[in-house]
Amino acid sequence: MTENLVRASTGGPPPVAGPPRRTVGRRPGRPRPGIGARLRAGRWSYLYLMPFVLLVGAFTLYPIGASLVYTLFQWNGVGSPDHYVGLANFRQVVHDGVFWRSFGHTFLYAAVVVPVQLALALVLAVVLNNKRLRFSTFYRSVFFLPAVMSPAIIAVIFQLLLSNFGDSINTRLIRAHVIDHQVDWLGDPHSVMWVVIGIGIWNTLGYNLVYFLAGLQSIPEELYEAASLDGAGAWSKFWHVTLPGLREVGLMILFLAVLGSLQVFDLVQVLTGGGPYYASSVVNTYIYQQAFGGGLSAGGAGITVQPNVGFASAAAFFYGLILMVITVAQALLLRRVRASRNAARGVREGD
Amino acid sequence: MASTTPPIARTPRTVPARQRRGPALGRSLPHVALLLSAFAWIYPLLWGLSGALKTDMGFLDSGLGLIPHEYRWHNFVDAWNSAGIGTYFVNTVLITVATVFFTLLFSSAAGYVLARTEFPGRRALLAVIAVTFFLPRGYTIIPVYDLVNHLGLLDSIWAVVLVQVANAMVFNTFMFMGYFRTVTKDVEEAAMVDGATFHQLYFRIALPLARPMLASLGLFVFISSWNDFLIPLVFTLGRPERQTISVGLYSFIGQTSTDWSVLCAGSVISLLPIVLVFAFAQRHVVSAIAGAVKG
User: Fold this and answer.
1) Beta bridge mates, B23
2) Which domain covers residue A285, as residue numbers?
3) Under 8 Å CB-to-CB from A288, ≥6 apart: which residues?
4) Residue A12 falls within a domain, yes or no?
5) B285 neighbors B278 (Cβ within 8 angstroms)
6) Distances from the Cα of A323 to the Cαs of A326, A330, B139, B145, B249, in angstroms?
7) Is this complex's ipTM strictly greater than 0.90?
8) Handedness of CA B5, B11, B13, B18 (dihedral sign)
């Protein structure tokens, strides 16, 4: 019953190549069991894997193929797609002004949120990582708290906060001479994207704070002590010990932050619905509205469009490809940095 | 906001005693700066909490103020009953509990056999996991919607659970696989000698050993399921009474309602479980999240 247990802690047996190596690690003279026997031996493994295989197959792998098929049809989501249009949906996406505007907003969002958020999180992490700072757990909790909250609910609260009730943000800013007239923060096309970006930074900073703290704790204390003995000041320690020590974790953090912000949806959908007039539309809200358009009654934007599933699928597929290219490029970069670090370490240990 | 100078700059080790005792201000300055920025940081949340206690008039009058002139606890009752938050809350609890349970059950089982057993097709599965790890999430919602529709599950709580569990599968299986590889096999081998069955090995020995992983992944799945928006939104579009709190409050805004304080109360109700979990399991939440970059 348990005959199929192997020593898999090293990642399973090496690949079998050619008859002579077939019996490596097996008792000599005993042939490798046939495929039928091995299938039978693995029956419980298959049973335990069944939910995984079914779920991943049906909800991850199949949809990739299916969405490719949808891109070739003009279809409003009712019944089955039958109006074949070839690559017309892709042409339409490439020539769609609103898609590219949404694309631009998404990249603007990422281009501002990621550096500002990472810089803030890093500074805060360095401050809170100081062992002599009391109550640092408390501060960490406070700055982390918004990150565990639903972006949709955050958006509800900010929508109310930014509205003009009584002694509002506007009256205070006017009194402080920052602005000279009432601003409709979420209704003005010039301000809306910046408000969304600001809330985005606030909402997810906590993750990066925790990541950076984890990274800082992995830097050996001796390095700082050695730097102190060499007469290094705080700034020089930060520059020569902290930053190099965070190189690998930092790249991973950057990786996650870029991908996360390029996929922003909840916050924008609830806060503005992409409005006014697509001024805060991001790729995901645009795809959502194109795909489920008719059912879109809620939200502040008031944009109602006919569902256009083929177009939405084409846009989603196109954007998915772009994200995949970015992901793979980042993964390769990360691997190279790891390899070069390991190589450096190997040389040092070899000496 | 957080642009305070690192305190390491102002705590040099070799300062003469006279100087060190002198400016107590110098040592409390970081705390003052941190307290002020921490207060500003959670101000929007405190404002939401106080808004939930204000009367309609008080809400309009007090603007950014945090202290209600008159406390109206009844907002919570109104939100729970007349705004339908009660139903949304129950839906969200059911969905979250079921998602956590099935995600942990299925992914730990898959992670266990992938880490511990050898069978034809194992390498192919590992390759699938590696590839899907790099697939961006959320771009296949349209065919998934169609699939759920064909299964006849649309507009049900189970649709949301099913899709959430499926989406959580690859990451969690990967984490369990990595965990079981690091756990020693001694106990299992001893049990095998004693004639334990495959199921006993898994349920009696491996799963209890994986308790720390179950806890941190469970927390992670709990938070993401509770906070999820797109999946419950899409799969309950036709049946408002099946919606979760986030989706329900979102449509509540759309109804051009002016019940701001009730809306705030609803938000507070929806944030409460997360805040409670965070308060009691803060260390675990933080280490679960930090674990994502350490690997």
Assistant:
1) none
2) 97-345
3) A265, A269, A312, B141, B230
4) no
5) yes
6) 5, 10, 10, 22, 31
7) no
8) positive
Task: Note the pLDDT of residue B207.
Answer: 92
| Strand partners of residue A73 | A84
What's the gap in Å between the CA of B169 and the closest CA on chain A? Answer: 7
How far does A278 lie from chain B, in Å, by closest CA?
A: 18
Look at B285 and A168 and tell me if their CB atoms are within 8 Å: no
Please, which residues have CB within 8 angstroms of residue B254's CB and are 6 or more apart in sequence? A297, A298, A299, A300
CA angle B265, B267, B272 (to 5 degrees): 95
User: Within an 8 Å CB–CB cutoff, is residue B190 touching chain A?
Assistant: no
Question: Which class is B85-257 in CATH?
Answer: mainly alpha
Tens of pLDDT, residues A164-214: 666 677 777 888 878 777 778 888 888 899 999 999 999 999 999 999 998
Amino acid letter, A264? V
Asked if residue B134 has pLDDT above 80, the reply is: no
Chain B hits for A327, Cβ within 8 Å: 134, 136
* pLDDT > 90: percent of chain A: 24
User: Considering the domain boundaries, does residue A293 fall inside one?
Assistant: yes
Q: What is the CATH number of the domain that holds A257?
A: 1.10.3720.10
Express each pLDDT in B192-231 by its tens digit: 888 888 899 999 989 998 998 898 899 889 999 999 998 9
Residue where the block lists tokens 């998934």: B144
Q: Do A58 and B140 touch (CB under 8 A)?
A: no
Whether residue A11 is contained in a domain is answered as no
Contact call for B31 and A61, based on CB within 8 A: no
Residue of B25 and B70 predicted with greater confidence? B70
Comparing C-alpha atoms, which of A157, A187, A317, A129 is closest to residue B135?
Answer: A317
Give the length of chain A: 351
Tracing tokens 């979760």 back to the chain, one arrives at B244
Say what the pLDDT of residue B168 is. 92
Quick check: is A13 in a domain? no
DSSP symbols for A87-139: THHHHHHHT-HHHHHHHHHHHHHHHHHHHHHHHHHHHHHHHHT-TT-TTHHHH
> What are the residue ranges spanned by the domains of chain B?
7-78, 85-257
Cα–Cα distance for residue pair B122/A15, rounded to 1 Å? 12
H/E run at residue A266 = helix A266-271
Minimal C-alpha gap between B87 and chain A (Å): 17
Nearest to B140 by CA among A32, A332, A211, A291: A291
- For the record, the structure tokens of A257 come out as 């932050």
Give the closest residue to B37 by CA, choosing from A182, A142, A49.
A142
Check if the beta carbon of residue B240 is closer than 8 Å to that of residue A295: no
